[in-house]
Amino acid sequence: MIVTIDGPAGSGKSSTAKEVANNLGWNYLDSGSLYRAVTWLFVHEYDYNIEMLIENLTTHNIKIEPLNNKVDTILDGNTCGSEIREQVITNNVSKVAENGVVRQFVNKAMYKAVQEANFVADGRDLGTAVFPDAFLKFFMIADVEIRAKRRYKEMTDNGLEADFEEIKKNLQERDYIDSNREIAPLTKASDAIEIDTTGLSFAEQVETITKHIQSRLN
Ligand code: DC
Q1: Which CATH class is domain 2-213?
Q2: pTM for the model
Q3: For all residues of the chain together, what is the average pLDDT?
Q4: d(CA 20, CA 55)
Q5: Tens digit of pLDDT for each residue in 166-195?
């Protein structure tokens, strides 16, 4: 069974999806981390050369592994950590995620993972393109100013360097690229429940979504 939460960067999807999954005893799937892992290859292994990345993509292995209540993203046998959250990755990820070969590669890893367990997954195109038959779909939105504040806090809490204005500019650029790309753009599925988190606390976001799921399960 899969529940999808799509929306723009910083709308609160990942922290909410993680907590909702925890409440339900399900696993959490962070589809953005897969795009970030591929972007890590683009930056560090292929020196920003998209053709080389695409040519060699299938020689790499990417998977999601549920382990002790935590789901890891594994790239070529190594668990991905904060290196995939660094600004250089964030600045390049939308460009890499535009590519159809990359999207197929990531989708394959997701399809494989969800065969084995129940998931709450967050992303951009999960309700529209990847899991059109999901059990329940949500679309989370929030004002860009509040999203930049949240992203800044998330990065500094994780010990990463952060610049508020750069984060805000990057969010606006990513919103544009993610929403206007040709393949599987960020858009609300017609059957998704929209949640505007601008004025909501984290606990309220989690409660709203958990309640929707529980009432559908009963
Ligand atoms: O959720 P995030 O910020 O970690 O995602 C990083 C990027 O990955 C995002 O800017 C666009 C891309 N992405 C995507 O294209 N489709 C998804 N389902 C998830 C993420």
Answers
A1: alpha beta
A2: 0.92
A3: 93
A4: 38
A5: 999 999 998 999 999 999 999 999 999 999
> Counting atoms of ligand 1 from 1, which one is nearest the CA of 13?
1
For 22-90, the DSSP string reads HHHT-EEEEHHHHHHHHHHIIIIISTT-HHHHHHHGGGS-EEEEEETTEEEEEETTEE--GGGGSHHHH
Mutation to probe ligand 1, out of 2, 86, 124 (largest number of atoms < 8 A from CB): 124
Kindly state the percentage of the chain with pLDDT values over 90.
Answer: 83
- Yes or no: say if 10 and 171 are a contact pair by the CB < 8 Å rule: yes
Measure the CA–CA gap between 7 and 17, rounded to whole angstroms: 12
Two tokens, residue 184: 């599987």
Six-digit token pair at 82?
Answer: 């904060």
Pocket of ligand 1 (CB under 6 A): 9, 31-32, 35-36, 93-94, 97, 123-126, 174, 178
Domain range annotation of the chain = 2-213
CA distances from residue 65 to 73, 74, 110, 168, 193 in whole angstroms, order as listed: 7, 7, 10, 32, 28
